[in-house]
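Re-running the complex after MR caught last week's input typo. The corrected sequence lines follow. Everything else is unchanged.
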Amino acid sequence: MGNELLQERLDLLKGAVRFETPGRIPTSSNVWTWKILDSDKKAKIMEACLDLELMEEIVREFHERYRFDMYEDLGTRNMFCVSDPLGDPGYVVNDELGSINAPDLCLMEDDEYDEIIADPVMFGWTKVFPRKFGSFTYEQFRQAVKGFQRFGAYNVHIAKVFAEEYGVPRLKGSVHFSPVEDLFSWGLRGFKYFSRDMRRSADKVDAFIDANEPAMVAGARAALETKDPSAVFDVYTVMLAHSCMNAKQFDRFYYRSMKKLIDLTVEYNGMATFFCEDSFLRFKDFFQDVPKGYLDVTIEQDDLFQVREACPTIALTGGLPSTLLGTGTPEECVDFAKSLVEGLGNGFILGQSKMISFRKDCTRENLLAVQEYALNQKL
Amino acid sequence: MENKYQENVDFTPEGFKKAVESLDFLPPEAAQKLAAALAVAAKRL
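Corrected-run output:
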């Protein structure tokens, strides 16, 4: 049963990327920590992230209730079981409000680009660890490594459970970030200092990308050569650092890496998906030559109809705004979903327009109504 | 039994070697690999 359904979902989702007419509406879950808050287990965010057996029960419950075709997250995002033993979970979690936020960090000084390029392991040990966590004992480090192993095993286990028991494919076979995301999203320089570096130390940013991009390309090539048959997309990336760039900076520091991922995907006849936080539309001109059938972009901020018009060869995932899912009625949510499905036609996977994380991002009633519509509507 | 790993880590190259050695529940090669991976991933934790 799992295998048949797995193949059906793979065909449905890959067909959407190829702009084929689907038999039913393909759906994707962009639901993150909200699933913990929605669960009948009534667990707290930290509790669920630290207890991976509890997390498995929560993600199973979530799937059994909503039955999405694929999932951005199966409790696999927050590595608290690694960071917590070191004394800092790395996120600001407020269990009373049901909120989770990432602080903007700067873990690398202005003049340390050469040092991290020369030896990233030793830079991580001698600079990043103490700046991020302060002091910790060797026992704490041992516990963090054990947490790292546990987290890795959970990732493998939960993907297998979803494929074999529920017939749900893995969303991605491999993940490759632009090197710039290490500087921006992952806090080596953070928003403020990375923005400044692009203007004042552009050559250093270039050198950092030059040093790290070959590994990104090699990883993507290896994934495309082997292709995980249980994954919808061979290549996955998250775009966030582009949010602080103008078109010229995007061309110089970011698009170069994205183009390599796209070209490799086409060369190997694979499929890629870009999870785009902030605006994609601002950089639409860079994506005019993408051949149809290879690339899907999850759109978080832009109007999907505008993106479709601007980039007609790219499949789109997303749709339901958290404002509507959180405060609208079930009828309003279903009407909005219908307008997207009917208006966008082929090349569309119905999802949500933001990472559904906070308590007020969604209600169970609304998400159930949209899923009931999507699962039962014949096309 | 006293835990011999209660000392604060030394964030130097020598301290890294000691941290790798402290992972005595792993084969040496795996210990080196995991400790290095964690050091590189520290920014993302």
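None of the earlier attempt is carried over here. The two ends of chain B are 31 Å apart (CA to CA). The longest helix of chain B spans residues 28-41.
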